[in-house]
Amino acid sequence: MQPVSHRLESAWQPEGGRFGRFTFTLVNLSETPISGFRLVYTSLTRVIDAAACENAVFLRRNANFHEFSPPQGFSLGAGESWTFTVSGLHRQAKHCTDGAKSAYLTLSDGRHVPVAVSDLLLEGATSEPPPQRLPEGKLELPFALQPWPAKIDAVPGDGFPVVLYPAPGSSKDEIRAVDTVLSLFHRLFSAGHAPFTLASSPQGRQIVFAAKPELGPEGYTLAFSEREIRLEYGAAAGRQYGLTTLAQLLDGARSEGGTFRFPVSGTISDQPRYGWRGCHLDVSRQFYPTADVMRLIDILAWFKLNIFHWHLTDDEAWRLEIKAYPTLTTLGVLRGPVEPLLPQLGNGAEPVGGFYSQDEVKAIVAHAGALNVEVVPEIDIPGHSTAALVALPELSDGQEAPESYHSVQGYPNNALNPAIPLTYEFLERVFDEMIELFPSQYIHVGGDEVANGSWLASPLARKLMEREGISGTFALQSYFLKKVKQMLTARGRKLVGWNEVAHGGGVGTEGTLLMAWENPKVGIELAREGYDVVMTPGQAYYLDMAQAEAFQEPGASWAGTATPAHTYAYEAEGEFPEELKNRMKGVQACIWSEHFLSRGYFNRLVFPRLPAIAEAAWTPKAQKDWLRFAAIAPLSPIL
Length: 639
Prior knowledge:
Pfam families: Glyco_hydro_20, Glyco_hydro_20b. Keywords: Glycosidase, Hydrolase, Plasmid. This is beta-N-acetylhexosaminidase. Helices cover 25% and strands 22% of the residues. With 639 residues, it is an alpha/beta fold. The strands form 4 sheets. Strands 1, 2, 4, 5, 6, 7, 9, 10, 11 and 12 form a 10-stranded mixed β-sheet that branches. The protein is globular. Strand 20, helix 4 (358-370) and strand 21 form a beta-alpha-beta unit.
């Protein structure tokens, strides 16, 4: 590893501007003085007033990319530091991850040099350490189950079988199901003792299978005795969930015998509370290798979650190979100082890319399908499309004034133009390839955060609006999304989108599923309009939100804080009128990746809140118990 030659330290003060002030200090740790350089850092706390900085010159910004130069004639000697301040911020910093996420220098000879960064410090206020996320747990029944079953009447035993195995006479599919969950366990707990064997064992206990379609496709029952375990299941998913329950019970009893036991008698009768039990992953802001995506799907299966919502495109990158448009995954994924896309969200001097080939997508979809997890792909349109527009500039109206509108994330002119015929040809060909890759009946098309004012400076869009009698951005968005829905319907697919799909007149409610993310009340409003709804409010189910108000706690803050206790206790259908509850199809966790610059940050923010949401998705409200969950959650696998 090369030694660090420059480091950027940053602090935030609540005084010094409407939203406080940054103080940056660049330290030259090299043996060589530098002059004529420029400093770039990326930060979600953006500068919106170019003049509001001292001892530096603000040069440009693109979303989270910021570039400065020192005063003219300045030279930074070896071992010396340069300090400058920046106010004119668009919001205050609330957490340690709100400062610079990455930095680099562009030297006078054009070379780009990495700069190390540290978390943001707080000055001028008390910085409290973050609290413990979980209390000491308490168990009424000593069973290690995540999520907790709908009904359990089991008696803990003093010992446990060494292993469980399919009874002689089990069908080929039943034996394969045991192998599937055994392999899942080995992948998640590589040092754990196998809960199953496919061969009979005198020290083990046999599993007697029985298909019972009346239990429903995801339902199962377990009956325990000292001689055998009887597993009745409605279909393949229920059989897998019953086996997963057995694996959790036996692993907990073996690894934490002082806390957990294995049943010696009694029953578990189980089925999910909701049909849609989802987890979303944003792979555009940060790229996750195929192995990481597969491991996350393994974790979802372990928690009996059944939907993997794969957010494949955004402003920052287009990650899905589309053979009709190869530049989407060449130009549309490269971020770097001289690449088509500027560095963002933790990128520095070295270019970064990454995408999923169609062969990798097929492997991931097959992996998920074997675990009864459905992959719902998302391409985020018409907004959040900077990467696509960089890759395919012909999708832009060349007469549209540059920077005529900006998204909430600061991207200029980032929405596909509904007035350009090529837009629809592009989407038709993208959808044609997607339906060959993804067997799900759903395709998610985003539809969120289109900036008010989008397209209004486009002569082509203005002409379309005049011809069709359309007034305003959101009515034009509705016009666009109705065409998209027609494309999907013609291909036998249902449209899924974020709640803003309903703006400006929305789309037809039949065969449309919307995700309520902005706040819980939005879901009820959508249900009243006739939409089916999945609840994923940022205030409880966004796993990038900070888990405490303490400055040292990492994460985002726009939706407040979401402690594990709050996430666990939140009841998505709590305020739904009785006559609308049939419109609520389930709940979903969302993993947005702006703050996930390391595996450590990922695991700290995602767990234990992901299993908390899994329990909310599966376990009846009356059976939820926060202290019981707190006792079991530390057994959770992590990425």
